[in-house]
Write a structure and sequence with these properties.
single chain; 417 residues; alpha/beta; five-stranded mixed sheet; 15 helices; 12 strands
Length: 417
């Protein structure tokens, strides 16, 4: 086997295509290797529509970037014919080594996509020697093709949550299939309002699913989400995960601390002490001392922190009925505790009102086997990818990367091989 046969084997050339020449341009750095491919004279080519062998009508030369040949950039050049099909007229044939419309070979795109799985797109683009804009086009194409094949006919339980895509309150809403063990993301859309549920319902129907089949949806206490679920998925039970209840009161404690810090000098280490659990074993000595000073000093922050810690008692209820009793008594007790300083403890009062208003959805947590914990963990991965890439230009690229990381896309380029 000579060098020409070896290169032809690497390109995967089959009749009527064959390698007829190669040249090296040493005037550029890195050097560029051009492999010339052509077909036998008088060969017939399949019509790209029906596959019937037809004679060539005319030819046009095209060039595709290929995998590097050692340390040199490699390109494939070929004169692609247009065929004159009796049924479909004059059509340009498809190059078997590249997808239609691309100026990269399939092997090059496969290597590029492998790099994108391991590093930011910009870093991958620098390694393979192309612009990140061109590489993003490749990523967008294969992700869109894989999404088009997504089958959602078996989806029964869904969790949704928003995650930030840029600063200044720019969000995307992520939907996951709670029954899927790996790669659970099934839909992502810009925004975080009522329209997100309507878009998901359309997407579900387009991919074989039915909104009537959705038995349960897990979300936070966003009024927009809850109202939209009632409109778009009326047969679904809504569960508000306990994580969001804890998050609600943790935020309230921090707001009370900020307000009180403007009025009084709070103990050092208060900021992180009140965000941690009293019995979690993570409190430092300084933080334990800060909590003791807050308690003994009669600060409103200490009252808010105690109520936040009391949620653990509610969480330990064994049945939905016991949980309802504990939530009711917790709210009554909390209202008495904050009555002495409603001005500073207003965030806690707001959290209590929210808890009472959404209690029916929260109580579903004791009857449901699903939670939002998995989605919250995925949000951390998405934000880590965003930070590693130093942000994305727009929500469209961030959405594509979320799909790429956590959607069941399968082998992206295998179906083209």
């Amino acid at each position: 086997m000579d060098a020409g046969d070896l290169l032809a084997l690497g390109l995967g050339l089959q009749p009527p295509w064959r390698l007829v020449g190669q040249r090296v341009d040493t005037s550029k750095t890195p050097h560029e290797v051009f492999l010339e491919v052509t077909a036998d004279r008088g060969a017939e080519y399949p019509c790209p529509v029906c596959g019937v062998l037809c004679k060539a009508h005319d030819f046009q030369e095209f060039t595709w970037r290929h995998l590097n040949l050692f340390q040199h950039h490699c390109y494939v050049t070929a004169r692609l014919p247009r065929v004159d099909c009796p049924d479909h007229g004059i059509k340009r044939v498809k190059a078997p080594w590249a997808r239609e419309g691309s100026r990269f070979t399939l092997l090059f795109e496969q290597a590029a996509m492998t790099l994108v799985r391991e590093m930011p797109v910009l870093a991958a683009a620098r390694i393979i020697g192309i612009s990140d804009t061109r590489l993003w086009r490749v990523v967008h194409y294969y992700v869109a093709q894989a999404l088009a094949r997504l089958d959602l006919s078996d989806v029964k339980a869904v969790a949704l949550d928003e995650t930030a895509c840029k600063r200044r309150h720019n969000y995307v809403t992520v939907f996951i299939d709670l029954d899927r063990k790996q790669k659970p993301v099934i839909f992502v859309t810009p925004g975080k309002g009522k329209q997100c549920l309507a878009k998901f319902r359309r997407f579900l129907h387009e991919h074989g699913g039915r909104h009537q089949n959705i038995a349960e949806m897990v979300c936070d206490m966003s009024p927009a989400f809850l109202a939209a679920i009632a409109d778009s998925f009326p047969s679904a039970n809504v569960t508000v995960d306990w994580f969001h209840v804890v998050q609600l009161f943790t935020t309230a404690v921090d707001e009370v601390r900020k307000t009180e810090a403007k009025q009084h000098h709070l103990p050092k280490a208060t900021r992180w002490a009140v965000l941690k659990a009293a019995d979690g074993g993570r409190l430092t000595i300084k933080q334990q001392k800060a909590l003791h000073e807050l308690e003994s000093g009669g600060f409103a922050t200490a009252t808010a922190w105690r109520l936040k810690e009391m949620l653990r008692w509610v969480r330990k209820a064994g049945t939905p009925r016991a949980a309802q009793w504990r939530i009711t008594h917790f709210c009554r007790h909390a209202l008495k505790c904050i009555a002495y300083d409603l001005q500073n403890l207003a965030p806690v009062l707001k959290a209590l009102t929210t808890l009472e208003r959404h209690a029916p959805f929260i109580l579903r947590r004791w009857a449901s086997t699903y939670s939002n914990a998995r989605l919250e963990g995925l949000n951390g991965i998405f934000q880590a990818a965003r930070a590693r890439a130093r942000g994305y230009r727009n929500s469209f690229t961030f959405i594509t990367m979320i799909y790429f990381i956590a959607a069941p896309l399968g082998e992206l380029i295998k179906f083209h091989s």
